[in-house]
Amino acid sequence: MSESQPASKDQIKVKFFTRDEDESLHCSSNPIYIPVSLKRFGLSEIVNHLLETETPVPFEFLVDGTILKTDIQEYLVKNGLSTEAFLTLEYTRAVLPPKFLSSFNNDDWISSVDSIGSMELTDGQGGTLQTDPKILTGSYDGIVRIYNSSGKVETQLTGHSQPVKAVKFISPTKFVTAGMDRSIRLWRAGVISNEDVDKDTQAGHTFALLDYHKSAVSTLDLHIGSNRILSGSYDNSIAYWSTNPKEMNTADAVDPSERLSSSSRKRLKLAIKDSSIKRKSPLAILESHRAPVEGVLFDSNDPTIAYSVSQDHTIKTWDLITARCVDTKQTNYSLLSLTSLKNMNLLATGSSARHINLHDPRSSKVTTSQLIGHTNFVVSLTTTDNDYMLISGSHDGTAKIWDIRANKAMYTITRESQEKRSKVFAVSWEKEIGILSAGSDKKLQINSSAEFK
């Protein structure tokens, strides 16, 4: 490393900077010459030297907004540059590899998962109660379970008669779930703290049934601020609901014998039990898709705007005030999952073509870039508190961590169960818990999230 000598064919002039203002104050403002053979580790040594850090810190490096995954020489060759070029390298703290923390058993395949951090609630008597982080899962046995972060099932919710395909926390005591039995349920359960872990598993109860869909309900999204719910179904429609039953009209009662096969005693029994629960109709119906809806999402900045993806290969934008589709983007493959990188104004979609596509809903261009690495359907996506990070779950049995500035996955999370041909159906992330993944191995797996900032 040299600050003044001219570059040889084995050196190049670079300048380091970071978007973190505090760290940039310690960096040399003058370009320096470094060997073109350096990769991330060697570059990190230089930056640690410039910052005079007491303990070395691993960094990632970006050139023109793209993470450098090779040595500098390979980058130069790939981009047709010589050592006479001048490079500006942005450095950012590297994300550490996720470590396996624990794995919890379930009685059947886990098809959906959500998580919520600790919260402070009022106890109704002028005091407050601190809740602990919780995990909500839906299973192919039709049971919704709430785990604490130690793996104890605190609450079991029974009512669905077929696999539960989507679950969402409204609060630590309220939840919404949906499944292949066509029903959407609003649930309520009490709060269990860590001091009550030896208490018998409690049962929650359904306080409203949201009744419209004519086929399996595959996806849900929730906007807490406006108390609104979106549901997507294999009947090709999207329904718009409230978390407050009083805001919705009462739906006509359903004859259990019409809704469910009389050959199934369990399903008929559950349907009869549901006859006393109030049924509610949607606030609006959104119709435009021509195949099953696999993902729905509220706009992160405007709850009157929503997005959806479908097996009909399209991404649609909806005006929820008028219940109209205002934009349709056509792709070449079935779209199976959806999330947003809100500070980047990007939508991410998982596809049957095994890749993840990034879309700018404001642009006329369908796809801005692709993330390639999975070898089977990408059926679940979630984000973290890092603006550039995505986590994906796939039928190839893995979850992957992505930085959208790189063209390949940063890390791959395999199943600790090592079950062959297992599929990951759902992923979630919670700062206080870690990376959650679940699937056909009947395991809820937790990996550390390291530092995503």
Automatic annotation (TrEMBL):
<dbReference type="GO" id="GO:0110136">
    <property type="term" value="P:protein-RNA complex remodeling"/>
</dbReference>
<keyword id="KW-0539">Nucleus</keyword>
<keyword id="KW-0853">WD repeat</keyword>
<dbReference type="GO" id="GO:0000463">
    <property type="term" value="P:maturation of LSU-rRNA from tricistronic rRNA transcript (SSU-rRNA, 5.8S rRNA, LSU-rRNA)"/>
</dbReference>
<comment type="similarity">
    <text>Belongs to the WD repeat WDR12/YTM1 family.</text>
</comment>
<dbReference type="InterPro" id="IPR015943">
    <property type="entry name" value="WD40/YVTN_repeat-like_dom_sf"/>
</dbReference>
<dbReference type="GO" id="GO:0000466">
    <property type="term" value="P:maturation of 5.8S rRNA from tricistronic rRNA transcript (SSU-rRNA, 5.8S rRNA, LSU-rRNA)"/>
</dbReference>
<keyword id="KW-0690">Ribosome biogenesis</keyword>
<dbReference type="InterPro" id="IPR036322">
    <property type="entry name" value="WD40_repeat_dom_sf"/>
</dbReference>
<dbReference type="Pfam" id="PF00400">
    <property type="entry name" value="WD40"/>
</dbReference>
<dbReference type="InterPro" id="IPR019775">
    <property type="entry name" value="WD40_repeat_CS"/>
</dbReference>
<feature type="repeat" description="WD">
    <location>
        <begin position="371"/>
        <end position="412"/>
    </location>
</feature>
<dbReference type="GO" id="GO:0051276">
    <property type="term" value="P:chromosome organization"/>
</dbReference>
<dbReference type="GO" id="GO:0043021">
    <property type="term" value="F:ribonucleoprotein complex binding"/>
</dbReference>
<dbReference type="GO" id="GO:0030687">
    <property type="term" value="C:preribosome, large subunit precursor"/>
</dbReference>
<feature type="repeat" description="WD">
    <location>
        <begin position="286"/>
        <end position="328"/>
    </location>
</feature>
<feature type="domain" description="NLE">
    <location>
        <begin position="12"/>
        <end position="76"/>
    </location>
</feature>
<comment type="subunit">
    <text>Component of the NOP7 complex, composed of ERB1, NOP7 and YTM1. Within the NOP7 complex ERB1 appears to interact directly with NOP7 and YTM1. The NOP7 complex also associates with the 66S pre-ribosome.</text>
</comment>
<feature type="repeat" description="WD">
    <location>
        <begin position="157"/>
        <end position="187"/>
    </location>
</feature>
<dbReference type="InterPro" id="IPR020472">
    <property type="entry name" value="WD40_PAC1"/>
</dbReference>
<comment type="function">
    <text>Component of the NOP7 complex, which is required for maturation of the 25S and 5.8S ribosomal RNAs and formation of the 60S ribosome.</text>
</comment>
<feature type="repeat" description="WD">
    <location>
        <begin position="210"/>
        <end position="251"/>
    </location>
</feature>
<dbReference type="Pfam" id="PF08154">
    <property type="entry name" value="NLE"/>
</dbReference>
<protein>
    <recommendedName>
        <fullName>Ribosome biogenesis protein YTM1</fullName>
    </recommendedName>
</protein>
<dbReference type="GO" id="GO:0005654">
    <property type="term" value="C:nucleoplasm"/>
</dbReference>
<dbReference type="InterPro" id="IPR012972">
    <property type="entry name" value="NLE"/>
</dbReference>
<keyword id="KW-0698">rRNA processing</keyword>
<dbReference type="GO" id="GO:0070545">
    <property type="term" value="C:PeBoW complex"/>
</dbReference>
<keyword id="KW-0677">Repeat</keyword>
<dbReference type="InterPro" id="IPR001680">
    <property type="entry name" value="WD40_rpt"/>
</dbReference>
<dbReference type="InterPro" id="IPR028599">
    <property type="entry name" value="WDR12/Ytm1"/>
</dbReference>
